[in-house]
Inverse folding.
């Protein structure tokens, strides 16, 4: 039938803050809040916004297209944009300067892409501000080395196997990122997909 279209629907716009969503910062230091976005449909006049504790806007920028760097619309004087969108990743990270204890809380990186019928997506980082940094990783490593002793080779082998498995899982997940694919020659992305999963993905308004 000419009117029949088959779609493979997946979330085209995705925002990520990395593997861990918690960041620890020393009082009076500068802290990086990482964020990147991906879209396999491209973007035009994309707007990204950083919020503190869901409501307070601390940075907003606009990106015309992939060939241009973001331009700030508004930002808190203590917030500095350190990302880039003309390079490999669409990096929209910021640095919070002169961190205080009152800065501890939830930071949300929100992206809206008009090219995808105003698709929206966001990711969240939790910032903890401490008086003094305590290193625990080195101690744990020394204990492991002390306990394992002669079995250290097996531990390294296990770590390598784990890394390979994680790499395979990541590659499998990357392969699942699909865009809207139509069986017809018509481009239906402009018309929107009424009742499709794509529209249900939009986050609820605060």
């Amino acid at each position: 039938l000419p009117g029949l279209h088959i779609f493979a629907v997946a979330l085209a716009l995705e925002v990520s803050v990395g593997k861990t969503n918690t960041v620890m910062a020393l009082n009076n230091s500068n802290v990086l809040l990482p964020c990147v976005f991906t879209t396999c449909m491209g973007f035009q006049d994309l707007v990204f916004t950083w919020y503190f504790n869901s409501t307070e806007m601390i940075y907003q920028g606009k990106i015309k297209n992939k060939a241009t760097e973001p331009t700030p619309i508004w930002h808190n004087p203590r917030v500095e944009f350190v990302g880039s969108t003309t390079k490999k990743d669409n990096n929209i990270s910021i640095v919070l300067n002169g961190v205080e204890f009152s800065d501890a809380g939830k930071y949300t990186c929100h992206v809206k892409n008009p090219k995808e019928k105003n698709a929206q997506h966001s990711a969240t980082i939790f910032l903890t501000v401490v008086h003094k940094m305590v290193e625990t990783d080195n101690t744990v490593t020394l204990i492991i080395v002390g306990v394992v002793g002669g079995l250290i080779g097996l531990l390294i082998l296990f770590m390598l196997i784990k890394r390979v498995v994680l790499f395979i899982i990541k590659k499998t997940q990357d392969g699942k990122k699909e865009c809207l694919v139509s069986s017809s020659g018509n481009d239906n992305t402009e018309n929107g997909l009424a009742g499709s999963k794509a529209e249900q993905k939009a986050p609820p308004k605060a």
In short: The first strand starts at residue 7 and ends at 8. Confidence is low (pLDDT under 50) at residues 3-10, 141-146, 180-201. The radius of gyration is 21 Å. The CA atoms of residues 5 and 186 lie 9 Å apart.
